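WARN no homologs supplied; continuing
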Amino acid sequence: MTVGRVASAVVLGLLLPGWCPAEDGRAAEIAGIRVGVGGCYKAGVWTPVEVTLRGGSLAAAGQLIVQVPDGDGAPVRYATTADEPCTVDAGRESSVWTYVRIGRSRGAMEVEFVPREGAPVKRVFRAGEPSDGSVFPEAIGPKESLLVVVGPDAMGVDRAVDMLRVQAGQRARLARVADLGRLPTQWYGYEGVDAVVVSTSRPEVAGGLRPGAPQIAALEQWVRMGGTLVVSAGRRAGEVLAEGALLARFSPGKFQRIAPLHQASVLETYCNSKEPIAGRGIGGVGELRVAQLAGVEGLVESREATLPLVVRRAMGFGHVVFAAFDLDEPPLAGWPDRGLLAGKLLGIAPTGSEESRESAAALPYGYGDVAGQLRSALEQFPDVTVVPFWVVVSVMCAYLVLIGPGDYFFVRKVVRRMPFTWVTFSLVVVAFAAGAHLIAQRLKGDRIRVNQVDLVDVDGRSGLVRGTSWATVLSPTVEQYDFAFDAANPGTTGSPAPKVLVGWLGLPGEGFGGMAAPTTPFTPWRQPYDGSAALGAMQGVPIQVWATKNLTGRWTAATEVGATEAGIEARLADADQGLTGSLTSRLDFPLANCRLCYERWVYDLGDVPPGRSVSLSSAFPRVDLKTFLTGRRVLFEENRELSNPYDRTSLDLNYIIRAMTFFKAAGGSHYFGLVNRYQGFTDMSDLLGTGHAVLLGAVAAGPEPASRHGARLLGNNGQTLHSPGDRHTTFYRFLFPVKKTGKGARD
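OK structure emitted
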C-alpha cells in the first residue's frame, strides 16, 4: 500500500508540475514578462520590461539579467545592480522592472535569474509567439506613432487614429493602460511614446498612487524632456487638481470650482465638427460640467466667455494640453465626432496624403525617419575614402582571372611544370590579400575616428538643461570598447556633471540593416556585451575591422535661473507687431548662424559673440518660418504654392538639425517625406505657439574643442576618443518666455 501511494505521488508530480510553486530545490522560476507600455513598444528606444518571478520552496534574492539583440544583431545584456538585489518570497510572485533597448522588431529576449544561493534559471521569449503569462508582441512599425490612453475608455483616441489612417495614410498605435500605477517608473521608459492621454473621471484611474509616487514623477520628467501629455479633467477635477493632489503639477492654473457649460457649441467649432453635442440641458443627465481655473498660464485654444476649456501649456521642453471636461463621460462619450475632438487635442489632425512620399523615401535610402538621415550623415568621415563599387568588382574579376585561366596558362606555357601551380596560386592569393590590406589601411587609416553632434537645450524660465549626443565610431581593428559620455554642465562654476543615459543607435527602417528588416543581419559575435546597471555606459562593445558603431546619449541638468554663465539673457515681449526687447549673450563662447523663432516668424541674428546684445523692434527684419524652412513661394497667376523639396540625401548637419527642430512647423512628413518618431522630442514646433521663442545656434569653430560645450565620448579606461581631425559639432537651443502685451495679451 505504501509503495502504491509513493508511485501515485511520483506520477502526479510528473504530470501536474504546476501544482507546486516551483521545482524542489530551485530558488525561483520565471513566470512571464510584459514588454512595453500597455503591451506596445518601439525597437531601438528604451523600453520597460516587467519580469514576473515565482518563488520556490524558500525565499530568494539575486540578480536579474535580460539579454536582447542590439540594432546590429549583436547580443547585449542589461542586469540589475548587485547592490539592490531582486527578491521573491517562497511560493509567491514578485515583479521586477528593468529597462532595455530591443534592436529587432521580431527579436528574442533571454531572461535569467541568478540567485545568491542555488542554480540560476533561464527562459527565452520570442516576439509575437504566444507564451503563458507573457506580453511580448512584435514591435510597432518604424513609422507608427504610439499613443497611450490611461483610463477605462479610449476617449475617442481610437476613432482619431482610424480617421487619420483613412484620410491621411498616417499610422498610429493605441496602447491602453488601466491606471496610472501601470505606467513606467523612469522617464526614459516613455522614449518610444508620442503622447499620453489621462482620464480623471474614475477614482480607480489613480491606481492607489500618491502625489509623490515614482510613476507621477517619471511622467512629469518625461514631459519636461519633450513629451506631450493630455489631461481630461471635468467632474472630478477638484480631487486630482487641487493643491497637493495627484495631478496638480500638470494643471495650468489654480482650481476654483466645477461649473456647468451651457453653450458647448464652442467645442464643435474648435474641432470643425458639424454634429451637435446632444443632451446638454441645464441640470440634465448629459450636462457638460467643466473645471474652472484661475491664473491660467499658457495658450487658451478654446473658451466659453471667460471660461478656458482647452489650454496648451509649455512644461520644460514638452507641453501639457489641459481639457476642462471629461472625454469619457456624457454628453461627449456618445458624441459621434468625439474622435475629431481627441485628434485636435493631440495635434494629429490630417494634413494631407503622406503615405506615398514616406514609402518613396524609404526605398532608396533604407530609412523612413529623419533619425536615419542623421545617422547616415555621421557615418561619413572626410578623410576616409570609400572605394567605389566598380573598383571592387574590377579587382575581383582580375583576381578570378589570375587564379584561374591566368595561372593555368602561366604554369603550362611559361614554367611548363604543372605542380608549380601550388606556388603560383599561393603567391597570387597572398599578393592580393596583402595589397587589399595595405590599400584599405591607406584609405581608411589606422586610428579610431569619431563623428559626433551634440544638441544642448536650455530653458530660460526653469533653468532646465537637456542634452543629446549622437556619435559614430570607426574602428581600425577588431576590438571591444567601453563607451560612456562625459557631459559638460553649462551651469555655474562647480556644477556637478550630468548623468548620461548611454545606448546604441539603430537604423529605423525596413531596408537592409534596419531594425524592422525581415532578416536579422549576420554578426560574428556570440558573446554578449554589457549595458551598465545604471545605463550610463556600455562595456565590451564589439566592432569589426574598419566598421562603425552608432551611439547616443541623453542627459539632463539644472542651472540657476539668470546665472551669468548659463546662457543668454532675454527680455522679450510681443506687442502684436512682432517681437521687441533684447538678447544678451552671457556665454563664454560665440554662437554662429543664430535664428530666433516665435510663432510663425523667424529673425536672423547672425553670429552672436560673448557679451553681445541684440535689440529687437517691430522694424527688425523677419521672415515667415514656413517660407524660411521650405522655400515656399506663391504663384499668383496659377493660384498655388510651390516649395523647394526637402533633400533627403543631404549630409549637412545644420540642415538636418534645423529640420528636426521645426519638423511640424515645416509641414511634417507631408513636406519632408520622412517621419520624426525616434527623435521626436527634438521638435520644438509646438512650443512656438505657447508664448515661447526658440533660439537656435551652432558653437562657432575655435581653439576650444566642441566637446567642451557638449559631451566627450570616452573609450577604454575612460580615455577621450576624440582626436585632431575628428568632426564634432555642437548646437545650442534656448527657450525663452515671451511677455504678451497689446491687444493680444492673455487674461
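The mean pLDDT is 85.
OK
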